[in-house]
Specification:
Length: 319
Protein backbone atom coordinates (compact mmCIF):
# COMPACT_ATOMS: atom_id res chain seq x y z
CA UNK A 1 0.00 0.00 0.00
CA UNK A 2 1.18 3.53 -0.60
CA UNK A 3 1.08 6.13 2.14
CA UNK A 4 -1.40 8.92 1.45
CA UNK A 5 -0.78 10.78 4.69
CA UNK A 6 1.29 10.43 7.84
CA UNK A 7 0.82 13.24 10.33
CA UNK A 8 4.02 12.47 12.20
CA UNK A 9 6.08 15.08 10.35
CA UNK A 10 3.33 17.72 10.22
CA UNK A 11 3.00 20.63 12.62
CA UNK A 12 1.01 19.44 15.64
CA UNK A 13 -1.48 22.29 15.41
CA UNK A 14 -2.23 21.59 11.73
CA UNK A 15 -2.41 17.80 11.81
CA UNK A 16 -6.14 17.31 12.24
CA UNK A 17 -7.01 19.94 9.64
CA UNK A 18 -4.74 18.13 7.19
CA UNK A 19 -6.34 14.81 8.17
CA UNK A 20 -9.81 16.19 7.48
CA UNK A 21 -8.79 17.45 4.04
CA UNK A 22 -7.23 14.16 2.98
CA UNK A 23 -10.19 12.06 4.13
CA UNK A 24 -12.52 14.45 2.32
CA UNK A 25 -10.58 13.83 -0.90
CA UNK A 26 -10.42 10.08 -0.37
CA UNK A 27 -13.95 9.35 0.90
CA UNK A 28 -16.04 12.45 0.27
CA UNK A 29 -17.55 15.06 2.62
CA UNK A 30 -17.61 13.89 6.21
CA UNK A 31 -17.88 15.66 9.58
CA UNK A 32 -14.86 14.91 11.76
CA UNK A 33 -13.98 15.86 15.32
CA UNK A 34 -11.01 14.95 17.51
CA UNK A 35 -12.24 13.79 20.93
CA UNK A 36 -9.19 14.54 23.07
CA UNK A 37 -6.72 17.38 23.69
CA UNK A 38 -3.56 15.43 22.89
CA UNK A 39 -1.80 16.13 19.57
CA UNK A 40 -3.44 14.15 16.81
CA UNK A 41 -1.57 11.34 15.08
CA UNK A 42 -2.86 9.42 12.09
CA UNK A 43 -1.83 7.36 9.10
CA UNK A 44 -3.69 6.73 5.84
CA UNK A 45 -2.50 4.13 3.33
CA UNK A 46 -4.30 3.14 0.17
CA UNK A 47 -4.47 0.42 -2.45
CA UNK A 48 -6.73 -0.02 -5.46
CA UNK A 49 -7.14 -3.73 -6.24
CA UNK A 50 -9.03 -4.02 -9.50
CA UNK A 51 -12.16 -1.91 -8.97
CA UNK A 52 -11.95 -2.35 -5.18
CA UNK A 53 -10.66 0.61 -3.15
CA UNK A 54 -8.97 -0.30 0.13
CA UNK A 55 -7.82 2.20 2.76
CA UNK A 56 -5.83 1.37 5.89
CA UNK A 57 -6.43 3.92 8.65
CA UNK A 58 -4.73 4.42 12.01
CA UNK A 59 -6.23 7.08 14.27
CA UNK A 60 -7.23 7.73 17.88
CA UNK A 61 -10.33 9.31 19.38
CA UNK A 62 -12.01 10.52 16.19
CA UNK A 63 -15.73 10.92 15.61
CA UNK A 64 -16.71 10.62 11.93
CA UNK A 65 -20.28 11.38 10.92
CA UNK A 66 -22.16 11.20 7.64
CA UNK A 67 -25.12 13.58 7.87
CA UNK A 68 -27.95 14.55 5.55
CA UNK A 69 -25.94 17.66 4.66
CA UNK A 70 -22.73 15.80 3.81
CA UNK A 71 -24.76 13.30 1.77
CA UNK A 72 -26.14 16.14 -0.36
CA UNK A 73 -22.57 17.21 -1.10
CA UNK A 74 -21.30 13.71 -1.84
CA UNK A 75 -21.00 12.06 -5.23
CA UNK A 76 -23.32 9.05 -4.99
CA UNK A 77 -21.12 6.10 -5.92
CA UNK A 78 -23.46 3.17 -5.23
CA UNK A 79 -21.00 1.72 -2.74
CA UNK A 80 -21.01 0.61 0.88
CA UNK A 81 -18.12 0.62 3.34
CA UNK A 82 -16.94 -2.54 5.06
CA UNK A 83 -14.75 -1.82 8.09
CA UNK A 84 -12.38 -4.56 9.27
CA UNK A 85 -11.09 -3.78 12.78
CA UNK A 86 -7.39 -4.66 12.95
CA UNK A 87 -6.67 -3.29 16.45
CA UNK A 88 -8.38 -1.20 19.10
CA UNK A 89 -12.08 -0.67 19.58
CA UNK A 90 -14.64 1.41 17.70
CA UNK A 91 -18.36 2.15 17.72
CA UNK A 92 -20.63 2.34 14.65
CA UNK A 93 -24.22 3.59 14.55
CA UNK A 94 -26.65 3.29 11.64
CA UNK A 95 -30.30 2.39 10.99
CA UNK A 96 -31.14 2.28 14.69
CA UNK A 97 -28.35 -0.17 15.56
CA UNK A 98 -25.12 0.35 17.48
CA UNK A 99 -22.18 -1.97 16.81
CA UNK A 100 -19.13 -2.13 19.06
CA UNK A 101 -16.17 -3.46 17.07
CA UNK A 102 -13.14 -5.13 18.58
CA UNK A 103 -10.13 -6.60 16.80
CA UNK A 104 -11.13 -9.07 14.10
CA UNK A 105 -14.72 -7.89 13.80
CA UNK A 106 -16.25 -6.53 10.60
CA UNK A 107 -19.14 -4.16 10.05
CA UNK A 108 -20.82 -2.66 6.97
CA UNK A 109 -22.08 0.92 6.71
CA UNK A 110 -24.24 2.17 3.85
CA UNK A 111 -24.32 5.54 2.09
CA UNK A 112 -26.81 6.97 4.59
CA UNK A 113 -26.44 8.92 7.84
CA UNK A 114 -24.12 7.06 10.19
CA UNK A 115 -21.55 7.61 12.94
CA UNK A 116 -18.16 5.98 13.51
CA UNK A 117 -16.16 6.65 16.69
CA UNK A 118 -12.64 5.29 16.93
CA UNK A 119 -11.01 4.40 20.23
CA UNK A 120 -7.39 4.61 21.28
CA UNK A 121 -4.87 3.33 18.72
CA UNK A 122 -7.64 2.29 16.34
CA UNK A 123 -6.46 0.51 13.21
CA UNK A 124 -8.79 -0.66 10.46
CA UNK A 125 -9.13 -1.55 6.80
CA UNK A 126 -11.93 0.27 4.99
CA UNK A 127 -13.24 -1.43 1.84
CA UNK A 128 -15.47 0.36 -0.65
CA UNK A 129 -17.76 -2.35 -2.03
CA UNK A 130 -20.30 -2.14 -4.87
CA UNK A 131 -23.80 -2.16 -3.46
CA UNK A 132 -25.48 -4.11 -6.29
CA UNK A 133 -24.13 -7.64 -5.59
CA UNK A 134 -24.71 -7.25 -1.85
CA UNK A 135 -28.33 -6.22 -2.28
CA UNK A 136 -28.90 -8.84 -4.95
CA UNK A 137 -27.71 -11.54 -2.55
CA UNK A 138 -28.72 -10.17 0.86
CA UNK A 139 -31.55 -7.74 0.26
CA UNK A 140 -31.74 -4.02 1.21
CA UNK A 141 -28.71 -2.73 3.10
CA UNK A 142 -30.82 -1.64 6.09
CA UNK A 143 -31.06 -5.34 7.02
CA UNK A 144 -27.32 -5.72 7.62
CA UNK A 145 -25.80 -2.31 8.39
CA UNK A 146 -24.13 -1.96 11.80
CA UNK A 147 -24.14 -5.71 12.45
CA UNK A 148 -20.78 -7.03 13.58
CA UNK A 149 -19.48 -10.37 12.41
CA UNK A 150 -16.19 -12.19 12.33
CA UNK A 151 -15.14 -12.61 15.96
CA UNK A 152 -16.76 -16.02 16.53
CA UNK A 153 -15.10 -18.05 13.80
CA UNK A 154 -16.89 -18.85 10.57
CA UNK A 155 -15.96 -16.70 7.59
CA UNK A 156 -14.75 -13.68 9.60
CA UNK A 157 -11.11 -14.67 10.25
CA UNK A 158 -10.79 -15.71 6.61
CA UNK A 159 -12.04 -12.28 5.48
CA UNK A 160 -9.44 -10.45 7.55
CA UNK A 161 -6.58 -12.74 6.53
CA UNK A 162 -7.57 -12.58 2.86
CA UNK A 163 -7.62 -8.77 2.70
CA UNK A 164 -4.44 -8.30 4.73
CA UNK A 165 -2.64 -10.66 2.37
CA UNK A 166 -4.26 -9.09 -0.68
CA UNK A 167 -2.99 -5.59 0.15
CA UNK A 168 0.46 -7.07 0.75
CA UNK A 169 0.76 -8.67 -2.70
CA UNK A 170 -1.66 -6.67 -4.89
CA UNK A 171 1.07 -4.75 -6.75
CA UNK A 172 2.45 -8.04 -8.08
CA UNK A 173 -0.88 -9.15 -9.55
CA UNK A 174 -1.80 -8.70 -13.23
CA UNK A 175 -4.86 -6.49 -13.72
CA UNK A 176 -7.13 -9.44 -14.57
CA UNK A 177 -6.02 -11.37 -11.48
CA UNK A 178 -6.47 -8.31 -9.26
CA UNK A 179 -10.05 -7.92 -10.48
CA UNK A 180 -10.79 -11.61 -9.81
CA UNK A 181 -9.31 -11.35 -6.31
CA UNK A 182 -11.47 -8.30 -5.65
CA UNK A 183 -14.50 -10.39 -6.61
CA UNK A 184 -13.40 -13.19 -4.28
CA UNK A 185 -13.09 -10.68 -1.44
CA UNK A 186 -16.59 -9.31 -2.05
CA UNK A 187 -17.96 -12.86 -2.06
CA UNK A 188 -16.28 -13.50 1.31
CA UNK A 189 -17.86 -10.37 2.81
CA UNK A 190 -21.27 -11.50 1.55
CA UNK A 191 -20.78 -14.98 2.99
CA UNK A 192 -19.89 -13.49 6.37
CA UNK A 193 -22.93 -11.23 6.33
CA UNK A 194 -25.17 -14.16 5.38
CA UNK A 195 -23.85 -16.11 8.36
CA UNK A 196 -24.50 -13.15 10.64
CA UNK A 197 -28.02 -12.62 9.35
CA UNK A 198 -28.85 -16.24 10.12
CA UNK A 199 -28.27 -15.58 13.84
CA UNK A 200 -31.02 -14.31 16.13
CA UNK A 201 -33.12 -12.93 13.29
CA UNK A 202 -36.01 -10.60 14.29
CA UNK A 203 -39.32 -12.16 13.25
CA UNK A 204 -40.26 -9.45 10.70
CA UNK A 205 -37.04 -10.18 8.82
CA UNK A 206 -37.27 -13.97 9.02
CA UNK A 207 -38.67 -14.49 5.52
CA UNK A 208 -36.13 -12.09 4.03
CA UNK A 209 -33.27 -13.88 5.73
CA UNK A 210 -34.49 -17.29 4.53
CA UNK A 211 -34.39 -15.99 0.96
CA UNK A 212 -30.95 -14.50 1.55
CA UNK A 213 -29.68 -17.81 2.96
CA UNK A 214 -31.16 -19.64 -0.05
CA UNK A 215 -29.43 -17.27 -2.46
CA UNK A 216 -26.14 -17.61 -0.60
CA UNK A 217 -26.47 -21.41 -0.82
CA UNK A 218 -27.09 -21.19 -4.57
CA UNK A 219 -24.01 -19.00 -5.03
CA UNK A 220 -21.87 -21.52 -3.14
CA UNK A 221 -23.24 -24.55 -5.02
CA UNK A 222 -23.79 -23.33 -8.58
CA UNK A 223 -21.56 -26.02 -10.06
CA UNK A 224 -23.81 -28.79 -8.69
CA UNK A 225 -26.08 -29.86 -11.60
CA UNK A 226 -28.47 -31.50 -9.11
CA UNK A 227 -29.23 -28.24 -7.35
CA UNK A 228 -32.96 -27.60 -7.81
CA UNK A 229 -35.78 -25.98 -5.79
CA UNK A 230 -36.56 -29.04 -3.60
CA UNK A 231 -32.91 -29.53 -2.75
CA UNK A 232 -32.49 -25.83 -2.02
CA UNK A 233 -35.50 -25.81 0.32
CA UNK A 234 -34.08 -28.78 2.21
CA UNK A 235 -30.69 -27.08 2.49
CA UNK A 236 -32.13 -23.98 4.20
CA UNK A 237 -34.53 -25.99 6.37
CA UNK A 238 -37.91 -24.91 5.02
CA UNK A 239 -40.66 -26.53 2.95
CA UNK A 240 -40.55 -26.10 -0.82
CA UNK A 241 -43.98 -24.47 -0.74
CA UNK A 242 -42.86 -21.89 1.84
CA UNK A 243 -39.69 -21.08 -0.09
CA UNK A 244 -41.69 -20.68 -3.30
CA UNK A 245 -44.05 -18.29 -1.52
CA UNK A 246 -41.15 -16.20 -0.26
CA UNK A 247 -39.60 -15.95 -3.74
CA UNK A 248 -43.00 -15.14 -5.30
CA UNK A 249 -43.46 -12.30 -2.79
CA UNK A 250 -40.31 -10.81 -4.31
CA UNK A 251 -41.48 -11.31 -7.89
CA UNK A 252 -39.15 -14.26 -8.50
CA UNK A 253 -39.36 -17.97 -9.27
CA UNK A 254 -36.80 -20.22 -7.62
CA UNK A 255 -35.85 -22.21 -10.72
CA UNK A 256 -35.60 -19.09 -12.90
CA UNK A 257 -33.37 -17.47 -10.29
CA UNK A 258 -31.06 -20.50 -10.16
CA UNK A 259 -30.75 -20.64 -13.97
CA UNK A 260 -30.03 -16.92 -14.16
CA UNK A 261 -27.29 -17.18 -11.54
CA UNK A 262 -25.75 -20.03 -13.57
CA UNK A 263 -25.84 -17.90 -16.71
CA UNK A 264 -24.33 -14.97 -14.78
CA UNK A 265 -21.45 -17.18 -13.64
CA UNK A 266 -20.90 -18.49 -17.16
CA UNK A 267 -20.94 -15.08 -18.83
CA UNK A 268 -18.47 -13.73 -16.27
CA UNK A 269 -16.02 -16.53 -17.06
CA UNK A 270 -16.49 -16.16 -20.81
CA UNK A 271 -15.72 -12.44 -20.61
CA UNK A 272 -12.67 -12.96 -18.36
CA UNK A 273 -9.37 -12.99 -20.34
CA UNK A 274 -7.87 -15.12 -17.60
CA UNK A 275 -10.37 -17.88 -18.43
CA UNK A 276 -9.87 -17.78 -22.20
CA UNK A 277 -8.09 -21.17 -22.13
CA UNK A 278 -11.07 -22.96 -20.53
CA UNK A 279 -13.16 -24.92 -23.06
CA UNK A 280 -16.80 -23.88 -23.44
CA UNK A 281 -17.90 -27.30 -22.19
CA UNK A 282 -15.96 -26.86 -18.95
CA UNK A 283 -17.51 -23.41 -18.48
CA UNK A 284 -20.99 -24.90 -18.87
CA UNK A 285 -20.35 -27.79 -16.48
CA UNK A 286 -18.65 -25.47 -13.96
CA UNK A 287 -21.76 -23.29 -13.99
CA UNK A 288 -24.05 -26.24 -13.20
CA UNK A 289 -25.30 -27.20 -16.66
CA UNK A 290 -25.30 -30.98 -17.08
CA UNK A 291 -25.75 -30.71 -20.84
CA UNK A 292 -23.73 -28.42 -23.10
CA UNK A 293 -26.51 -28.17 -25.70
CA UNK A 294 -28.94 -27.05 -23.00
CA UNK A 295 -26.39 -24.45 -21.88
CA UNK A 296 -25.98 -23.15 -25.44
CA UNK A 297 -29.76 -22.81 -25.91
CA UNK A 298 -30.32 -20.95 -22.66
CA UNK A 299 -27.27 -18.76 -23.20
CA UNK A 300 -28.33 -17.68 -26.71
CA UNK A 301 -31.90 -17.05 -25.58
CA UNK A 302 -30.59 -14.75 -22.83
CA UNK A 303 -27.71 -12.96 -24.57
CA UNK A 304 -28.50 -13.31 -28.28
CA UNK A 305 -25.16 -14.99 -29.06
CA UNK A 306 -23.73 -18.46 -28.74
CA UNK A 307 -21.23 -18.87 -25.86
CA UNK A 308 -18.27 -19.00 -28.27
CA UNK A 309 -19.47 -15.92 -30.16
CA UNK A 310 -19.94 -14.06 -26.89
CA UNK A 311 -16.41 -14.94 -25.79
CA UNK A 312 -15.00 -13.72 -29.13
CA UNK A 313 -16.96 -10.46 -28.93
CA UNK A 314 -15.85 -9.85 -25.33
CA UNK A 315 -12.24 -10.47 -26.30
CA UNK A 316 -12.35 -7.83 -29.06
CA UNK A 317 -13.66 -5.25 -26.58
CA UNK A 318 -10.82 -5.90 -24.09
CA UNK A 319 -8.17 -3.10 -24.31
Amino acid sequence: MHTVLSTREADKTARFKLWREVLYDRMGPIELSHLCDEPFEGLIQAADVGSLRITRIRESRVRSEITADTLRRRERTQTVFALIQLAGRSVNIQDGREAVQTAGEIVVLADRPNVHVSGVNDRSLVLELPIAPLERMLGPTRHFTALTFGSRGGTGPLVRTFFEELVRVHEKLPASSAERMAGVGIDLIMAGLAERLAQEVPRPLHGTVLVQRAKAYVAANLSDPNLDPPRLAAAVGVSLRRLQELFHERGQHISDWIWQRRLDAAVERLADPGCAHIPIGHVSYGSGFANQAHFARRFKARYGLSPSAYRTAARTKTP
